[in-house]
Amino acid sequence: MLHYSRRMRKLQWRMAVVEKKTGWDEAKKRRISNALELSYMSSEEENNSDDETFLKTKPLIWRSEEYTKILHELDTK
């Protein structure tokens, strides 16, 4: 459940960022919003080692470079 809720928060964050993008026209925003689905997001696995806990992202191999670039742009400030 932790992974689902984290992924859901990330999806909601990305959708909000798309709406706020000023350099994108409405058609691009609509295309990107339509492509943002929970099932298209990388899964995450929690790893524990000694004193550290971190998430390991499992990228989706079928995801295009263009889509990956867009996600990176949405995730960076």
Write the layout of secondary structure elements.
Elements: H1 2-20, H2 26-35, E1 43-49, E2 52-58, H3 65-75
Antiparallel strand pairs: 1-2
Q: What's the short story on this structure?
A:
This protein is α+β, with helices and mostly antiparallel strands and 77 residues long.
Low-confidence stretches: none
Radius of gyration: 14 Å
* Helical coverage, percent range: 40-55%
N to C succession of SSEs: HHEEH
> Which structural class matches the secondary elements?
alpha+beta
Strand content: 15-25%
Tally the helices.
3
| Mass-distribution shape | elongated
| Whole-number total of structural domains | 1
Rounded mean pLDDT is 82
Strands, count: 2
Biggest sheet layout? 2 strands, antiparallel
End-to-end span in angstroms? 27 Å
Strand order across the largest sheet:
1-2
Task: Characterize the structure shown.
- The chain is α+β, with helices and mostly antiparallel strands and 77 residues long.
- It has one domain.
- Helix content is 52%, strand content 18%.
- A two-stranded antiparallel ribbon has the order 1-2.
- The mean pLDDT is 82.
Key terms for this structure?
about 50% helix; two-stranded antiparallel sheet; about 80 residues; alpha+beta
